[in-house]
């Protein structure tokens, strides 16, 4: 470690030698000062006001110099002081720069990296099917009506001409809300088993003519298997006006099925029963996969059953204050999942509800 020597010889040559030796030591020490604390130490050691090496040089080389050498000694001492300050200054800048560089390096953004991809979602196949169905009927002038999923017994059953305790209620495996016993039966709450209650609500609210479709989620107490799910979707429709006939029902559904499955598809209407329609029908379409020859989706029959439908029962008009003598209408309903399974060749309805990306990604 360098220490300032006392001088006996104050000749210019001796002063220069001492100065060079000191500056060499100073340069080495300054070179070692590569960070803030080390530089602080360098400053204290060399430029400290009382005991710094520059102060010592001042004592030992200038003050101790005989009068004749004071000028020469003073010059060197000044040079040394200036040099020490310069070095300190230069290092402050260098250190500040290296700190800045390190920060910039740490904050560097590599714009060539691929980044975080946030894939856009797609419509769920069930909703996509529902949308297609909706658009077919919207084009025919139907508007969309929605209603609550938690319904009262009145809207889900009574106003649809299911009398209390009528066996037809058994066909709709209903999930009832608990602890409703104190209420009158018509007010008891349940999860709607079909979207038909929306048709009642629509007729209560608006005067005829009515043309609505009622899409939505419905619930039935069915054990889940490949073709049953306790939650599924329906699209129902209602048309009420003067002089609506069974011919209108057939024409409308035939047109809708042709829009969905192609103009080669045929429709077939067979008698059935629903409490809210009379007469009632089950509607099948000729199998769009095999053209009617028989294949797996149509179970070799050539036909696929898709809808329930019928002419609105006059009793239903009675519940909503429509005059059955002046008005007539038809209604229809279908399961959306069933249609989606057919459209996308899905053989297990549960796939729609698992939320498994491997299944859903196929629709992206
Ligand atoms: N609401 C019936 C059901 O869910 C379907 C349907 C609607 C049948 C309209 C005929 C007329 O089973």
Report what the structure shows.
It is a single chain. By secondary structure, the chain is α+β, with helices and mostly antiparallel strands. The chain has helices at 12-32, 36-47, 53-63, 70-106, 125-139, 153-156, 196-205, 246-261, 314-320, 336-344, 351-354, 357-360, and strands spanning 143-144, 150-152, 189-191, 210-219, 231-241, 267-274, 277-286, 303-312, 328-335. It has a seven-stranded mixed β-sheet, with helices on both faces. Strands 2-3 form a two-stranded antiparallel ribbon. A hairpin with a 2-residue loop joins strand 6 (267-274) and strand 7. The two termini are 74 Å apart. Bound molecules: phenylalanine. Phenylalanine binds at residues 194, 196, 236, 274, 277, 308-310, 331-333.
């Amino acid at each position: 470690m360098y220490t300032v020597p006392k001088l006996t010889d104050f000749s210019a040559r001796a002063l220069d030698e001492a100065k060079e030796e000191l500056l060499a030591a100073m340069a080495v020490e300054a070179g070692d000062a590569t960070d803030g604390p080390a530089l602080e130490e360098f400053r204290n050691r060399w430029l400290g006001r009382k005991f710094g090496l520059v102060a010592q040089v001042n004592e030992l080389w200038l003050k101790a110099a005989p009068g004749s050498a004071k000028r020469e000694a003073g010059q060197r001492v000044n040079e040394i002081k200036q040099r020490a300050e310069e070095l300190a200054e230069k290092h402050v800048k260098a250190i500040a720069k290296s700190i800045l560089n390190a920060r910039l390096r740490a904050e560097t953004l590599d714009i060539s990296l691929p980044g975080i991809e946030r894939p856009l979602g797609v419509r769920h196949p069930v909703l996509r099917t529902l949308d297609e169905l909706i658009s077919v009927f919207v084009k025919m002038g139907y508007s969309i009506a929605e209603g609550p999923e938690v319904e009262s017994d009145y809207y889900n059953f009574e106003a649809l001409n299911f009398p209390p305790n009528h066996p037809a209620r058994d066909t709709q495996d209903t999930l009832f809300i608990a602890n409703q016993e104190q209420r009158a039966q018509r007010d008891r709450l349940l999860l709607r088993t079909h979207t038909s209650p929306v048709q009642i609500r629509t007729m209560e609210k608006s005067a005829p003519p009515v043309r609505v479709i009622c899409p939505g989620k419905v619930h039935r107490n069915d054990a889940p298997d490949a073709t049953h799910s306790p939650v599924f979707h329906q699209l129902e429709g209602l048309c009420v006006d003067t002089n609506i006939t069974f011919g209108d029902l057939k024409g409308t559904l035939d047109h809708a099925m042709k829009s969905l499955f192609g103009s080669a598809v045929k429709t077939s209407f067979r008698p059935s029963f629903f409490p809210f329609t009379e007469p009632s029908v089950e509607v099948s379409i000729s199998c769009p996969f095999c053209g009617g020859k028989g294949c797996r989706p149509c179970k070799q029959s050539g036909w696929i059953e898709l809808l329930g439908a019928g002419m609105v029962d006059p009793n239903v008009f009675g519940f909503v204050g429509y005059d059955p003598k002046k008005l007539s209408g038809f209604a229809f309903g279908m399961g959306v999942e069933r249609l989606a399974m057919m459209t996308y060749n899905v053989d297990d309805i549960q796939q729609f509800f698992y939320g498994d990306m491997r299944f859903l990604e196929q629709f992206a």
